[in-house]
Amino acid sequence: MKLLIVDDEPPARAKLRRLLSDMPGVTLVGEAADADEALALAITHAPDAALLDIQLPGRSGLELALLLPPGVVCAFCTAFDQHAVRAFELNAVDYLLKPYTGERLAEAIARMQQRLAAAGAAPRRGALLTALQQLQPLTGDWLVPQRGGGLRRLPLAEVEWVAAADNYIELHAPPACHLDRRTLAEFLAHPAAKGFVQVHRSHAVNPVHVLGIAPLPRGEAQLTLRSGETLRISRSFRDALK
């Protein structure tokens, strides 16, 4: 099992390295101090699993779990117990409270290995979901992956705006936010996304959800959406909504 560890505290990472070195079947492929570094390592090393702290600089470990490539199983190592329910909603394999023992960590690693083995029992499933997602319909719907596996059909009419998140996009359909592993440019180039307008290098908007536009200094502007969300229109995109 190729494992990635993510913790902003060097002593915590050192403890994990020491304990993991004695565990058979575990290869540490990288360690990161924040979510952005972790995502870069995930792309480079394709880990099978990740041990995540929750309180990280920038994006939290919970947000990172949603952004990791499909198929990466996650367990959380944290000093805070109030996030456990949300962690298991994200299909976490385990939730370790600091300080934990080597035996407790070994238990979590065994659970991750079991989850991976169960996923490997259906080797064509991941390929099938990937193939289905590539066949995006042209009817104004979008197929979005679910954390526990499978795809869901999301009507794009419900999506207020789409944000770039590295090699992912966030489809904001309040009160929900859905993640998809493609770039904003790829989304906007797809016929199903016809009608969405890019108003910033990192986000595009569904104009039917725009309630108002207010000018800002230096030629920029601000959009207000039905949900109350506000988005900035950069100067280079300000003509897009005329």
TrEMBL record:
Keyword Phosphoprotein: yes
Keywords, sorted A to Z: DNA-binding, Phosphoprotein
Domain HTH LytTR-type: 154-242
Superkingdom of the organism of origin: Bacteria
Keyword DNA-binding: yes
Molecular function per GO: DNA binding
Modified residues (4-aspartylphosphate): D53
Residue span, Response regulatory domain: 2-113
Protein name: LytTR family DNA-binding domain-containing protein
Species name: Ideonella azotifigens
